[in-house]
Design goal:
The structure holds 2 protein chains of 2 kinds. Chain A is mainly α. Chain A is 69% helix and 1% strand. Chain A has a single domain, classed as MetI-like (MetI-like fold, Orthogonal Bundle). The radius of gyration of chain A is 25 Å and the shape is globular. Chain B is mostly helical. Chain B contains 14 helices and no strands. Classes of the chains: A mainly alpha, B mainly alpha.
Amino acid sequence: MNETKVRQLKNGRKLRFTNEDLWGYIFIAAAMIIFCVFTLYPVFNAIYTSFLEYKPFGSEFVGLQNYVDTLKYSKFNLFYKAALNTLVYTAVVVPLSLLISFTVAVMILPFSKKTQSVFKAVYYLPGVASGVALSVVWLWLYDSSPDGLFNQLLGFFGIPAQNWLSSTKTAMLSLMIMALLSSHGTQIITYIAALLGIDNSYFEAAELDGATFFQKVRFIVWPLVKPTTLFLMVTGVIGSFQVFMNAYMMTGGGPDNATTMIGLLIYNNAFEYGKYGLACAQAILLTIVIAIMSLFQFRLMGVDVEY
Amino acid sequence: MATTGLYSQHLNNRKVLYLRNAVIALVLILFAAATLFPIVYMILSAFGPNVSTAGNMRTIFPSRWTLESFQAFFDFSPHSLRWIWNSFVVAAGTVVGNVLFASMAGYAFAKIRFKGSSTLFGVILVAMMIPYQVTQVPLYILMVQKFSMTNTYAAMILPSLCTAYNIFLCKQFFAGLPTPLIESAKIEGCNQFQIFVKIVLPLGKTVLAVMAINTFMSSWNNFFWPFLVTNDPAMYTIQVGLKQFKFANETLFAPMMAGATISALPMFIMFFSLQKYFMEGVTIGAVKG
């Protein structure tokens, strides 16, 4: 297409805009201006800034130094630690929350439409409250004194009180538990929509062959909702790689950086230490990693998605 | 009940059916209770005595019922009410911008054939995948240092005035409208603007409502960006304001929960009155995602 345009221009013919073209441009004008100023420009500016040592008056061009600093391995380089933490967090939370959502969605199915929508609403509800407030509730639940509600619960089973968020052993685990017990509403609703789309004849055929309930789930339902699983997994991983709020509010990345994740690291570099260039370089590396991970998941799952 | 084919109907033994459903319901209710617990606890604590995190007995139900924590929330800062107002202004501004601009752009990308349409839409799709960490630093420099917009509504609204995701959402929905309808309106002598106002917008009520609700909710609950661009307590949004109740070693727990309950109230009211659109929003976004 580009070739023909160039050829047209060479021939001295002007690019003619039809009436339809002009209407199109009028309709997208406002959106595109906003998009260019507040998305496109910042993206290119971030790439540019990643080659700078940023100073408010006269930044210094340092080439790839920010990338080298990020990737150079040393004991004090938090990038690898943060990357590992993010990876561990993602590897535990995303698959488990998908499994929970899938199980709940399957369990909601035998009920009437009305009961189904009540359950959907109840599972969606926790998602409408704000993260700031909920994270403080969780701080309180995880209180390390024996009075803390989680410790009271452990005490009930005769397990000694834990330090939850302030011990390197349990801090990450605590954040994971919190994520798993937060709202799965959108995932559950998406799964239910996919499950309701499965044709009944599959089950009738399986019934004739004497398939058990679990065989039906394993060999009919799970393969047929695979595109949904893929979609939820990709969006889940993308979201999890950017996780910031919980670590920021609950642990501040501690203890001993056990819960420092990439999102928090970038925030700290930018807005605590004012190293804008380094933060931009790390954000761009994060983008590349997310892109690769998404492609990888499509490859891994996509092979047998289309029957 | 289309998919109940997955489950046996136990036609010969209704008792088994009822027992099975009762067990399933019990498990579902227990899990729901676990995920709802933090919110319930937040509301219960708000109606309890004015306590902080420093050495108090933790119980689920407050030791006595009182409104003193709400009083403490409003006494904490002279701007407490203003924070809620600020959140309303920012969320409303963001919603209006998105409903207006994203729906126009979404319609154009779906139904108007103009040069460069697919390239431009491709750019928007790619932009959707970029994590916010990339744009946050340049945006911060732009708004705070270049435009000197600290502590303004504009600084909080402008960056999300028309998001790539909402353009995508509208395009997906409008693409499903019948093209012959639009073509015949054109033959009748309508111009694109008339078609948009008289045909497309009325047919697109669902997506507009979904978009308005989701945008309002994410703006209302957004902490990060308002936190970056405000430092005057009078310009805080409610989420940034709530953070002020948490200090390094202590949190004014009950007043904060009172504030959190107040801030969650509009969301709950919206959720219960417009539930259908919340649910719709999930599936509209996911289809063909």
